[in-house]
Amino acid sequence: MKKPLLTLFFAVFCTALFAQVSTQEKQALIDFYHATNGEKWHHTWQLDQPVSAWKGVTVEDKKVTGITLLFNNVEGTIPASIGDLANLKTLELSFNNISGELPATIGNLKNLNILAFNGNNLRGSIPSSIGELNKLQQLHLSSNKLSGTVPTTVKKLKNLEIFNVFDNNLTGELPTDLAQNDNIKEFMVAENNFSNPELFSIVLLSNSGAGLDLNQKTALTSPANSIIAIEKNEDE
Description:
19% strand
């Protein structure tokens, strides 16, 4: 009888050990939980359980690679320690009630592919450190209260496919260097106060390197000086 029990205990111990993430990453998640009123989320985390069991958290090889908490009543601010989750590939927090500013430490997430905060109450400017996310493919910041200019560092996002800042209070010039990114498929920048959307659309449509399919979707402009969307044919 002792042998089966010992075997079961060893199996449970090994499973728990394998699923364990680093102390730094776990603490960053706990910081996020407390800073965003985790007790009031629709799907909350049981902090006494392994991180791999927390709703919306993806763990691969004992590393936190994803946080997906859409429509989860996440409210409050994003703590600076979010930058300690260096292995994150997806940070999807759209359609919640997150306020405050995006911390500059967001630029530490060098493995990030998707950054999404659509439909929140973010304020302040887009941090220039966002240009450090050299693996980023999708940037979704629509329907917030972001202000200031789009940082010129976005031109460094060579893998970016979707740039979505629709419905904010952004001003100034759109960085035209971004239009020369061969991977760009879609821009969503309407409902802002950019000063050069017409020029930006001309650069996008005339840039042979962009490979835009004018028969699929062209640049759409409005009297409010804004580009709605531009897409690239994925077959090219």
